Amino acid sequence: MTIPDPSLVPLRHDAFMLLALEEAVKAEALGEVPVGAVLVFEGKVVARAHNTRETQHDPLGHAELTALREGARQLGRWRLAGCTLYVTLEPCPMCAPALVQARVDRIVYGAMDPKLGAAGTVFNLVDRPEFNHRPEVIGGVCERQAQGILKRFFEARRNGIRDGGGK
Amino acid sequence: MTIPDPSLVPLRHDAFMLLALEEAVKAEALGEVPVGAVLVFEGKVVARAHNTRETQHDPLGHAELTALREGARQLGRWRLAGCTLYVTLEPCPMCAPALVQARVDRIVYGAMDPKLGAAGTVFNLVDRPEFNHRPEVIGGVCERQAQGILKRFFEARRNGIRDGGGK
Question: Which residue of B has its CA nearest to A80?
Answer without folding.
Answer: B59
